[in-house]
Every structure is written in C-alpha cells, then in structure tokens.
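Lay summary. Proteins are chains of building blocks that fold into shapes, and those shapes determine what they do. In this project we predict the shape from the chain. Here is one chain we studied, written as its sequence of building blocks.
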Amino acid sequence: MIKTNRVILLLTMLLLLLPVFLISNYGQRTVLPMEEFIKRRAALADQVKEGLIVLFANADNSPGLRFRQDNDFYYFTGIEDKNAILAILPATRQAVLFLPHQTRKEAAYEGKNLLDEPNAKEKTGLTDIVGLDFFNEALARWLGNEKNQRTIYVRLSAPDTVENNRGDTLIMHARRCRNPYNDQIMLDHYRVQKLKEQYPAFTFKDITPIIDSLRVIKSPAEIEILRRNGKISAEAVKQAMRVSGPGVYEYELEAEALHVITKNGARGTAFPTIVGSGPNSCIMHYADNNRAINPNEVVLMDFGADLDYYCMDITRTWPASGKFTPEQREIYQTVLEVQKACIAAYRPGVTEEDVRKYAAETMKKKNLDPRGLKGGIHHYLDMCTHGVGPRDVPLKEGMVFTIEPALYFPEKNFGVRIEDTVLITKNGCEVLTKDAPKEIAEIETLVKEK
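And here is the predicted shape, written in a compact code that computers can read:
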C-alpha cells in the first residue's frame, strides 16, 4: 500500500512538472554569427554604391525596460552599445563604428563599451572602432574627398520599434503632437537637421527603402530564430490555456506566458500582452489585463516573444469553462475556416486579392457564411511585430506574415480572433506558431471543463 501511494505521488509530481519539461526543451539561445552582419553591410553597400551611409544607435533605455537597440542599427552591426554611430563607405565597403568615451563611473554602472574591449574589430568585423568625438572630422575628411560622391544616405523615414513599424511610428507621433506641448520633431529628423546644417552642400537621400528590401527577406539564420520563437510563444499560450478558468485573473494568464518565454531566453514580449475575457475580447488592443474571468466566457489572448531581436505574434481564443457554447462554437469555426483558407493560399507570387478570392471560394464550397470575413494578408513580421516592407506586392520566399481573421460581437460580450505567423516557402508557407492548438477538440481537451 505504501509503495502504491509513492507511485501515485511520483506520477502526480511528474504530471505537474510536465509543462516545465515542455517549456525547457528548446535548447540554448540562437546568436547570429558575425558573418551574418558582415554580409548585410556588404549587401547594403552593393545597393547604394556611392556616397556615405550613416546610421544611429539608440541613445538610452526606454523607462523601466531593458535596453533594446535601434532595429536598423542592430541589423547591420549586432551591437548593443548605446549612443553609437555607424558610417559605411559603399565604394570601399569600409564600416566604422563611433562610440562615446566612457567615464569610470559609466563603465562601472553599465559595463564597458567596445572602445575598451580587446580585439573588438576582429569580433565585429568592422574596419575600425573610434571615439564619437572624431565623427564630425571623419565626415569632413570623407565628404571633402573629391573622389567620393557628395551624398549622405540617412534614415529620412520614421524608425520602427519592437512593436510599431515605420507607419505606426508616424501615427503615434501625430497623435502625440495633438498636444502643442508635445509637438517636437522626431529624434531622427533632428539628427538629419543637424547634419544638413553641418554639410549644406551635400545631397541627403533616404536609406530606408533599401534597408527594408533587405530586411523583408529572411536568411536561414533568421529563420531558425523565428522557428524557435514560434515554438516558445506557442508553448506560452498553451500554458496560459492550461491554467485558465473562471475566477482566474487575466494578468495571471499573462504571468504564466511570460514565465515560459523568459525561461527560454526571450528578453520580453514583442508587444503588450493582450488577455481579454468576456467583453474585453472585443477590444482589439486591450492590454489592461485586470479582470477576473467569468464562467462560460471566451478568453482571447494575443501574445508573442521578443527573442534575439525577432518578434512573434500569435492569437488564440478559448472557452474559459472548457466548452464553447453552441453560438461561440459556430462563430469560432467560421473564423477558423477563413484562417485555414488564407494559410492554404499563401505562396510565392500570390497577392492579397488572390488570398481573398481563395478564402471566399473555400467558404462557398463548404456552404459556410463568412459573416463579412474576407481573409487576406495582414502584416509583415521581423524585428518589429508590425514588420517593415512594401504593401500590396506579390509574396516572395523568405517573407514572414501574420494571418488573423476575427469576428467581434460587443453586444454579446465575446469576440474570436485566430492568428498565426507564417513563413513563405518555395511552394507554400510554414506555420511557425502551429504548436498552439486551434482545433475545437484540441482546445477543449487542453483547457478541460471547469
């Protein structure tokens, strides 16, 4: 009898620890090799060919958050030092990093930057690493050389962040400027203004379209990070499903998901986590996450990790009590069928209109009412959740997009959204977030009736 109890106790402990084993099974963090950044700088130089390229690093932390480097600067350097400037001479492929000299106190508080690191040039593949105080003189020497084209390529467009693409950033800035006491120009524009004051005879061109054309197609090394992120983000949502139920607070589900991704090396989330129960499931960007979940409601969770500077975006909707009501089930199945049709249509050469037509034909063949859902291509995803790239272009191998059809019924206090992140492959697409269940039977088995 004692032995039997011990066996039962052991099995119970193993079942309780199973989620921990699952979330620990993704190996170590993937770090891009130096060669990746060297290739990127070479590809940028090949497209520009002339003049001088100048990129700025972020100057400081966002309040209360870890430092995250400017996406464009990091894409070509892999360097997280603050307040730096990168200058690239396309004609010679020279790449010089300018860094501020640190005081002893700065170095003690934040660690030394690459200026004080032995073999820093070899480590980064850069031509040189010098003090920031030499930047203006270096520009004067380069640009004063008659052999060099008098063109400076800088970011004239808006920057992107971990959450917002360049267009989003412009919108957020415009909203901020509604208040006349907040209407200062963007930091990027101020930098360009300063350069123009210093070198008024030179031509300034926007480097952003060229950068975006490079970032939009993912390399094999980037794809490996995205695949891993898809796995840990999916497991995070699964863990939230496991612990959800009536009486549980939305923020408790967020906490469970955060534990999974941070345990697996993510620096944090790719955007503010959305856990909307009941009426909150109808608010597309709800992020308060402070409500207790009631019986027979749905929970809509939109979540993604920021792993090694690459984002993920996944949404699942499930019944808090473990079983969809007949109405919830019917709506959920409609959204799921539209999403599946979009995934089936994603392949190189396809346009947004092609995807919409395929989704409509699929729903018609199945005699399903799409309730206004048209399908389509949603947003790019890369170092930014709403990734950079041109809109309304045919899909290409190596692009990464989300698919997220949704239906909302505020008058009934429930909404359904199902979102996956997919990689466009040679003959179709790969669903990077496939490990999070979305079939009704799978969801109800995982959540279990409460």
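What the prediction tells us: The chain has two domains: 34-215, 220-447.
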